[in-house]
Amino acid sequence: MADAPAPKPVMTPAQAPKKKSAASPLSAPVPGAASDFGYVAEDGAAFIKLPDGNEHQVGQWTKTDADGKLDTKAAIEFFANKYNAIVTEIDLAAARLADGKSEPKDARAVAEKAREATIHPAFIGDLNALVARIGQLEVLADVREEVISQERSEFREKIIKEREELAEKAEALSGSETYKKTAEEYQQLVDQWKTLPRFDRAREDELWKRISKSRTSFDKRRRAYFAQLDVKRSEAKETKEALIKRAALLSGSRDWGKTSGEFRKLMDQWKAAGRAGKADDKLWERFKAEQDKFFEARKVVFAERDQEELEALAVKEKLADEAEALLPIKNIGQAKAQLRAIQDKWEKAGRVPKKDLRRIDGRLEKVEKEINGFGKSNVDPEKRGRALDTVDQFQQAVDKYTRQLERAEAEGNEKGAKDAKAALENAETFLKAAKENLAKIESA
After folding, report:
1. Which run of H or E residues covers position 46?
2. pLDDT of amino acid 444
3. Per residue in 99-119, is it b (16+ CB within 10 Å) or e — as a string?
4. At what angle do helices 104-119 and 127-173 cross, to 10 degrees?
5. What is the pLDDT of residue 301?
6. Would you state the torsion angle of the CA atoms of residues 356, 358, 363, 366, taken in this order, to the nearest 10 degrees?
């Protein structure tokens, strides 16, 4: 961004700070009668007594009183009022100047007008006092001008200091990477700059160039960042479009375990792709719709399977009751025949919930062992009991790791499935050995 010209607000005199003066700036007038400084002759000519002793005619009076005589008192009062009007104007100018309501040039204009009035006076009054009062007003104007000059100088220094601080702040912001917030701060900084009055054009232009340079540097980095961000968003969008197509192909699969794992991989890739800008939410809705289609179908199938397993469990519970009713054995031949019928129904009943598998199978196995071992008296009951406990422990371990493996495969958890499979193989090895040991004991 090229250096922009600095804004140019103009300071009016009213913007400069002003201090109020104390009481009346001019000395109090010395009281005296107007007749002491002039008179009106019998012919109506009005004169003022000059400081050098001479007289000067200030006007002509023609008005008479009720008796037709010249009213000299009214004449003196008239010309004295003209004198007082000048004094009043001087005092008012001094008061306004002292209160900061007018400029020294305004007071000087009043003084100049009054001084011209003394050259060809048209009033009666103390001319020396009037000249002195005019001088006081001029001195007051000079003093006030010096004060204003000093105040304005201090004010200029203060404004320049504020501009320097803005330039320093702009330079500090130049390296920021919080782009949105910093752009707003730069705008606020420029707005603040515009509100400040101008005094020193050269110095202000120098400071503005520092601000402009810093802002340009920041803007270049900001544009580069967002350009790169646009590229990443575009790449993310393409990646996610591809993932949606892949999800659509998988959504109809019925290989629950493997496909669950595939969807987990797709989810990891989705997260790694990053955001695709404004389109991200709609892309996610499309991806999730395909994912939900698969998992809803799996949920329905699993629910049906669970219902079938519960129904099979109910059948086997009744069959286990029938098998246990064969004990104690009264007729071995009849018991074996009835057991075979129960076993056939048992196989046809189907799978039961995994959590109930060991318990329900154990009930039937116990009856089977009693019937199959009927008449064999050489087996040590205690030794056989310990062997049975060992088989039972390892069978529970096999059931446990089988459930863990199936759950991990359904969730697509490859590491969990690998660990569960290793533990299951180990438990199956020990179970096989325990069963072989039990078989030896029972065949002894």
Report:
1. strand 45-49
2. 60
3. ebebbbeebbebbeebeebee
4. 160
5. 81
6. 180
| Amino acid making up residue 353 | P
Q: Please give the angle made by the CA atoms of 120, 121 and 123, to the nearest 5 degrees.
A: 160
Output the pLDDT for position 257: 82
Sequence spans of domains, the chain: 20-154, 159-230, 378-444
Q: How far apart are CA 185 and CA 195, in angstroms?
A: 16
pLDDT value, residue 438: 78
Q: Identify which of 245, 251, 228, 240 has the alpha carbon closest to the alpha carbon of residue 280.
A: 240
Query: Taking the complete model, does pTM exceed 0.70, yes or no?
Result: no
Question: 232 with 271: CB under 8 angstroms?
Answer: no
Q: Residue 326 half-sphere exposure, CB side, CA atoms within 13 Å?
A: 27
| Each residue's pLDDT tens digit, 53-87 | 899 999 999 888 777 788 888 899 999 999 999 99
The first and second tokens of residue 130, run together, are 């009037």
Element (H or E) spanning 55, and its range?
strand 55-60
151, containing H or E segment: helix 127-173
SS3 content of the chain, % helix, strand, coil (to 5): 75, 5, 25
Residue 45, SS3? strand
Average pLDDT of the segment spanning 372-376: 71
Asked if 284 contacts 267 with a C-beta cutoff of 8 angstroms, the reply is no
- Residue range 135-142: mean pLDDT, rounded: 93
Among the listed residues 57, 210, 187, 41, the one whose alpha carbon sits nearest the alpha carbon of residue 124 = 57
Which two tokens mark 234?
């575009």
Q: Which residue has the tokens 């707005």?
A: 191
Q: Smallest Cα–Cα separation from 203: which of 246, 240, 271, 157?
A: 157
Tell me whether residue 143 is exposed, middle or buried, using C-beta atoms within 10 angstroms of its C-beta: 0 to 12, 13 to 18, 19 or more: middle
Q: Is the pLDDT of residue 334 over 50?
A: yes
Residues whose CB is less than 8 angstroms from the CB of residue 270 and which lie 6 or more positions away in sequence, other chains included: 240, 243, 287
pLDDT for 379 equals 60
